[in-house]
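hey so u asked for the seq, here:
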Amino acid sequence: MKIQLENDQLRAVIDTHGAELVSLQNRNRVELMWSGGPQWPHHAPLLFPIIGRLVDDVLHHAGSTYSMPKHGFAREMEFEVLESTPRSVGLLLNSNETTAAMFPFPFSLKTTWKIEGSSLNLAVALINTGQDPMPASIGWHPAFHWDPEPGWQLVFDQEESPTVRRVNSLAQLTAGSHPSPLQGRVLHLDEGICANGAVIFESVNSNAVQYISPHGPVLNMNFGKFQQFAVWTQPGADFICLEPWSGLPTPETFTDEIVRQPGQGLLQPGAKRTFNSRLTLLQ
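ran it, structure tokens below
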């Protein structure tokens, strides 16, 4: 089911399948989101409980193995509508038999979408409802329209590390670091920016980035408590993904128990973790 949120500044459409933002239009009804298609069939999926892909798509826990799809299962699950108004919606996914077959940890995952002025706010709340520490990563993977022509930029609000991480063709973290493509605080976006995989800022200093077209600023993305940030596109594609993460993809050689995976936090029983992101339209 698709739920529309609207005011005089913007219009957003949220799909209960995956709790996914599928449309974002400015006051002139110009669409900012990637429409999906053969190059990449998504819009802005929520990544949970993993980011990237496990080796052989296998999760190891307590001597058992589980089949886990790329980027986890949340993006393919139907969320329950908790509350809905013309300007906000709350969606919930609780662990169930289907999720337990892939991820043997009880959880509650709530997303709240709210429009305020020219901003769309996303709040994500994850609770460990089980009795054991829960390994989990959370990521947001929105894809925005992008014409691969000179003049597109991403401007970070803080100085970042001189090195970045990359992933292989299977979306698994490669060893070592690489020189950052940033020039000062500016990432110039071109067709070759992700030729060697997504650009991953492993411990991002910034709280926000500004997405700028050759004709001026398009939007600000604020990502608060997310500790990582990634930029990804496919060569020849006309979208760019700006991705706040909490957690890193699985290293390409890692086949140990999921609770030992580096770069992925453990949420204690009964504990709650919250993340927020805000898109502010500038056109």
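The chain is about 0% helix and 40% strand. The helical segments are 97-100.
lmk if thats what u needed
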